[in-house]
Amino acid sequence: MSAGTPSVEIPRHGRRSEELWGEMDAARESDVAWHSGRVAALVYLPGDDVAQVAREAYLRFFSENGLSARAFPSLARFEDEVVRMTATLLHGDEHVVGNITSGGTESIVLGLKIARDKARVDQPQIAQPQMVVPETAHPAFNKGAHLLGIEVVRVPVGTDFRVRAADIEAAMTENTILVAGSAPNYPYGMVDPIPEMAALAAERGISFHVDACIGGFFLPFLERLGNQVIPFDFRVPGVTTISADLHKYGFAARGASTILCRNDEIGQYRITTFTDWPAGTYSTPTMAGSRPGGAIASAWAVMQYLGEDGYTRLTEQAMDATRRLIDGVTEIPGFEIYGEPDTSVLAFGSPDYDMAAVATEMERRGWFVHIQRYPAGIHLMLSPGHAPFIDDYLADLREAVALVARGEGTSDGREAVYG
Ligand SMILES: *Cc1c(COP(=O)(O)O)cnc(C)c1O
User: Fold this and answer.
1) What would the pLDDT profile of 104-157 be if each residue is shown by its tens digit?
2) How far is Cα 402 from Cα 270, in angstroms, rounded to an integer?
């Protein structure tokens, strides 16, 4: 709620539930039509059968709380198995430890906390810890760094939109406690040079976090499909922690990601324990206290339902949709894809056009557009379920571009604001 809005109170008398459903459905009428592929981000489309499994599992464990393994050993088992399955997928061994978190942001904040607390022990001489990340790293790194008192240095990418390990090295100081890279990054969908970057961290004995929020449940299957993938997981020496989102390409219900630590020596720093409480000792391995049983159950069920072949098939569908989109975009004179995206995440645009006007015309045609700030363009994160809508999207894009070329398309002046 923003300041100045009239006050709203709990109704004096309770209302009938049927009345609420009507009002809530009416409220969602102006929401983006995600089920018709009108937004390429925020909602992931694995197909109705998968979504149904995710929903059913969530509702089955709707009331249970992941805070207590003693009360709900079922959830403890699901969480443990999700962590183990993810660790194996990302080539970790039996020493890997981790947890399910509420999302990529929490997983990243935990990665940062681990690095900070480990450095307090290993490098006690550092008064002001600092971390080095590419400029493409997710804003969650700055959110976490702010909370934890870590300084962030963001290193610019080259003209090919790739960060150079040499530039990362040049930004490192004696106060650097953590280096991080993305697999892939959000803005351009490209995997950072993780092996070279992690080697820099390993040489100095400091932490290295891989943000595989997007790629954790995508890149391994892309590799199975025979594609060359830059090594980004526990196969890479020096990688200490990895975040991988279950609620993105893991296709689980929202509110689920993983934080994985190479071993318990590293993983111990994710745990917070408070012993001086009248109610007793309180210890949690994540930021959250109470945790939704539904999100944990949903992640386990979807992984079991899809299996490796299911994920591989969905990855193939998402990449087919992406290739068709890339072909269609690059056929429009003057248009290009920014960089060489490794997955189904990409940005495109053209220096010859007012991209804000193109974006506005696309929105007028019912598409929810994320404007890319640099270079000016449009950002997309495609799901397998976008495949049927690619032709419509391209037809509207060609029309929008033609309109702007004739000076008839207009911008509503919007800027690149995420969300
Ligand atoms: C989505 C995303 C995050 C943050 O995840 P949330 O689940 O939105 O908190 C972090 N890194 C990358 C690369 C992402 O795409």
Assistant:
1) 999 999 999 999 999 999 999 999 999 999 999 999 999 999 999 999 999 999
2) 53
* Complete DSSP assignment for 22-85: HHHHHHGGGS--GGGT-BSSSS----HHHHHHHHHHHHHTSS-BTT-TTT-HHHHHHHHHHHHH
Classify 90 as helix, strand or coil: coil
Query: Cβ distance 315 to 272 under 8 Å?
Result: no
339 class by beta-carbon count within 10 Å (0-12 exposed, 13-18 middle, 19+ buried): buried
CA 59 to ligand 1 centroid distance, Å: 24
- Residue of the nearest CA to atom 5 in ligand 1? 104
Alpha helices by DSSP H, 65-185:
73-89, 104-122, 140-148, 165-171
Q: Give φ, ψ of 281 to 5 degrees.
A: -70, 135
Kindly state the tokens that stand for 324.
């068709």
In the structure, which protein residues have their CB atom closer than 6 angstroms to any atom of ligand 1?
103-105, 108, 138, 140, 182, 185-186, 211, 213-214, 245, 257
**Helical segments of 331-389, H only:** 355-364
Residue 395, both tokens: 């037809």
Using only the alpha carbons of the chain, give its radius of gyration: 22
CA distance 4 to 103: 31
pLDDT (tens digit per residue) in 169-195: 999 999 999 999 999 999 999 999 999
- The DSSP H or E segment spanning 242 is strand 241-245
Q: Are 128 and 151 in contact (CB under 8 A)?
A: yes
Cα(166)–Cα(196) distance, integer angstroms: 9
The atom of ligand 1 lying closest to the CA of 103 is: 7
Residue 161: name the closest of 145, 182, 143 by CA.
182
C-alpha angle 318/224/387, rounded to 5°? 10
For the entire predicted model, the pTM comes to 0.97
Residues near 105 by beta carbon (within 8 Å), at least 6 away in sequence: 138, 140, 143, 144
241, 262 contact by CB (below 8 A): yes
Cα distance between residue 57 and residue 256, in whole Å: 13
DSSP H/E element including 182: strand 176-182
The token pair at 30 is 């102006």
